[in-house]
Amino acid sequence: MDASAEITFHAESRTFHLSNGKLSYILHILENGQPGHLYFGKAVRDRPDFTHLQEKRQRAMAANPFPDDDTFSLEHLRQEYPSYGSSDFRQPAVEILQADGSRITEFRYESHKILDGKPPIDGLPATYTESDGEAATLELTLSDARTGIQLTLFYTVFARYAAIARSACLRNGGQEAARILTAMSLSLDLPDSDYKWLQLSGAWGRERYCKTRRLETGITEIGSLRGHSSHEHNPFAALLRPHTTESAGEVLGLSLVYSGNFRIQAETDNQNVTRLSAGIHPSGFDWKLEPGGVFRTPEAILVYSGDGLNSMSREFHRLYRERLVRGYWRDRPRPVLLNCWEAAYFDFTEDRLLRIAEKARECGAELFVLDDGWFGSRTSDRAGLGDWQPNPQRLPHGLAGLAEKIAAMGMRFGLWIEPEMVNPDSGFYRRHPDWVLGAPGRTLCESRHQLVLDFSRPEVVDAVHSMIRGILHSAEISYIKWDMNRSITGAWSAALPADRQGEVFHRYILGVYGLYERLIREFPEILFESCSSGGARFDPGMLYYAPQTWTSDDTDCIERLKIQYGTSLCYPLSATGSHVSAVPNHQTHRTAPLSTRANVAFFGTFGYELDPGALSGAEIRQIQAQTAFMKRYRAIFQFGDFYRLKSPFSGGEAAWMCVSGDRKTAIVGWYRILCTVNPPFSRLRLQGLDPGALYTDTGTGARYFGDELMYAGLTTAAFDGRSPENGDGGDFASALIVLTAE
Ligand code: DGJ
Known about the structure:
- By secondary structure, the chain is of the alpha+beta class.
- 19% of the residues lie in helices and 30% in strands.
- It is built from 12 helices and 39 strands.
- A hairpin with a 2-residue loop joins β11 and β12.
- The longest helix is centred in the last third of the chain and has 23 residues, at 617-639.
- The structure holds (2R,3S,4R,5S)-2-(hydroxymethyl)piperidine-3,4,5-triol.
- (2R,3S,4R,5S)-2-(hydroxymethyl)piperidine-3,4,5-triol binds at residues 341, 371-372, 416, 483, 485, 531, 533-534, 550, 553.
């Protein structure tokens, strides 16, 4: 039976129960009119009243809004969208500075609506529905009587995903302007703190490493103040029960659909209640809400899994792949590409590009991507950024001429752009020195010799739009890699008044989203890949516009095990840009077998980032086999179910696998990091198979039932020698096992 999304309202107890058979989310209206939280977790049967789940008692030092009820203190009640100032001392979800200097608000129930489907969020990325019954949404409207400000909380439950989407809207129905200092997308008060916190953190070249720690009394927090979601912390966190593993135990996953400054926090209070929150980072944020003005927060997604991390990830993967990514490429396997960045960097002519492209075609590539350096005076990263005209010395026949030659080879043509930035040494900057972000009298910090255009200004976005649009019309371009290579400093806009400078970061990212939206509408069949010095903007916000993201500038396959493993916690393989690069690797100087480099890159969008002209005939033949293999199986890699099997963070081996929707084909990737002498035996227990189906290992012809593969496992000693260069094993060996059932 198809699952359905249900929202039940029990008028007497003023309780809302959102459920879809996988999870339940239950809230009610407290005695003082504020919404209180009752339950989030595995689906429970509905009943008219769940108020018993709201624990209340008299506690020393608690402040009580009702003089006659010393058990009612907001400090100890679990709430839905708390504000500071009237007896809750924890971190607020909302804080509004009012004309009289007060920051106290009391948002009380006014009305609610239950809708079929999910309304969009104007100007912001968000999950969506396509047909009736896919989701139901609760719109809970509260108001603050003193200011006249209305707060609407949105809760969507999906029929097919174990996920709840939340966001909030503030509308100033009063007479005076107010300033929003904090407006979280989500706040969730959990009854205990018996959790491990998992975050995806790192730095350039080592993005999204899995880091865990126990929750402790106080605040556990990640965030970005860099203007992009950042290499350092991804807008994702999960709370795991202490014994949760990849395949068992409870997990709450939290992901913010936003690409700018963010904060995700868990605050464990003195009674072990844990307040989880996510939203725009309040630091430096200050949004002026004029009378009649409306402010929408980004959306946050909560996923519940009772079956471990793999199951949480698959819910995120399916939701993001099917109902966050949009457009022509959403359900289409991605082209095998060759990107010339690591092949040539800034050192190319049209002839050199054509030689690389011709070899790429021979290897089986379907898309040739011209990276940085094709425009203006951009022969290094010191000049030309912002001048979006082909460099006639490098491309004498323009982009159109090059694209035609690529098309004549039978490949599509793709291009790199970095529309949000300028080099000071560029015609664009010389014409518009006042269009970059930066406060007068303050240091204008360059990073990679570039400055950030003020995308909070519509005229700046319009000017960039007309240049990029012109480029996209000038040649047959099928793919765009949209890069963003620095963090934002000096977030001050010449176009905004003093009392709106706290809006710059958010307005900037709205400008980026607006430009993406215009371009994807005008060029719906172009495949966009977002990028930010590798993976500094690998976030759900970007996926709404660009179906795939360049995962990291670190293309070393062994390093990529950790990066792609961490990325897979939240993001689907169809979004994970992964390429085979040359050896010695340009970042680590490591030499890993070509087979291992491909065996890692298959688990993503797949392509090459090397000069195929520098390869031997045998290597070219190996690559031809790899591209043919990927074309045959890419639908399973990119749209199948993904399972992590062995973590590269905890041992000398890593493994993962993809299973087709009908469970008839499974592809397992196994990787040895460093070999040891006289290694102990190890087993690889597979997941997601049909226990009764008989699978054939297409490499060896061996046959196994699904239950044996999942419960007894494969013996990894048998993997040595499976890849051409592995021989008897050694460092960086790998195996790819394709299993098919009748
Ligand atoms: C950073 C990207 O991550 C690289 O792949 C490459 O496109 C360079 N920028 C080009 O400047």
